[in-house]
Amino acid sequence: MFDSLQSRLGGVFDKLRGRGALSEADVDAALVEVRAALLEADVELGVVDDFVRKVRPKAEGEAVIRSVTPAQQVVKIVHDQLVETLGSQSASLVLGSPPAPILMVGLQGSGKTTTSAKLGLQLQTKEKKRVLMASLDVNRPAAMEQLKVLGDQAGVATLPVIAGQTPITIARRAMAAARVGGYDVVILDTAGRQHVDEQLMAEVASVKEATNPHETLLVADSLTGQDAVNIAKSFHARVPLSGIILTRADGDARGGAALSMRAVTGAPIKFLGMGEKLEALEAFHPERVANRILDMGDVVSLVEKAAETIDQEKAEKLAAKMKKGSFDMDDLADQLRQMKKLGGMQGMLAMLPGVGKIKNQLDAAGLDDKILTRQEAIISSMTKQERTDPDIINGSRRKRIASGSGVEVSDVNKLLKMHRQMSDALKKLGRGGRGNPLAGLFGMGGPPPGVGGRR
Asked: Would you place residue 298 in the very low, low, confident or very high pLDDT band (cuts 50, 70, 90)?
């Protein structure tokens, strides 16, 4: 997300850093480019003009012009204004006394039903809430069945379907069932339409009046840009929103909707849908998003994701093996799987500071999850003995492994070389070697051996 904006702003600030001392003309020219970058990212015009209007007096002030590091001061001012535009503080769900109803609204095709299941899974696993989901969509064929299937996949309960009931009747039945069943949260998945119309708004308003939800969340497709902003304004005017969930944010290179939503509606963005998997729902943190836009990285989110996905028991076993200098192919396979859980190569790299500046080189190197999948396939084609003792893998074994995993012998060679380098580095650590042997593990000249398909 925000790839194009990150690239444009990065270029603007690199020019400023190259100038050393800054004049008001330099700052003014930079702000013209910042404005163009925001408009190119599909940020709403009024939001862009307000952004530049607030940044200009701070960036052209004496404190910046006479600063020892004026370019860094300008970056900080833009960063702080981005945070303010995005909402300053992250906004969590406000759930009062159970059962707390959450009303999910939005247009058809925005990902509302899938997002309902994602939210239900997150509340159940992270917040330890008992969740009941109910589909109020009596118009779209198989809508209720879709929610039930997703609920089964997520392990979240769904309200049994009774044919012929109205959305209000279903909503009231869901609340009654939640009270009897001791549920903490009820997620009400309302019907959508192809476009905003009076019938849709009347239905949503009547359900809201009948259930008095603790949260009314708009689910909007971030890829629709300004359309998403206009939809948010329409819903907010008729059914005041408590928050917004932007779907398909992982495919949105511009990010204009995210930067416009809060300023236009006053409703905070609470979550981002970052993929098709039911676990792919991220809490929205304005400061972390601003850091990503300005290529400052988001190490905090990476660490949090690692804490959620890494198997603690396996990690402790690996640590014990590392101390002994033992690191076999099964251990390497585990590490590859952990990387995929953390979002793969691109997902992890996107959260590291400064990666935006070498994005083209990384793209040229072909760093994607196909590499990890291919390396896993190579290891899976090895016998148990070969995985335990890779030194026995001679030429004929390499040919067999390559044939079994559908790759070239050279790919097997690269993976074995990478394993050997990792193993040697870990042995040095185990012996208490000086320096940081892991620092040179992947080499200074580019991606690690076996990564990027280099031959």
From this structure: very low
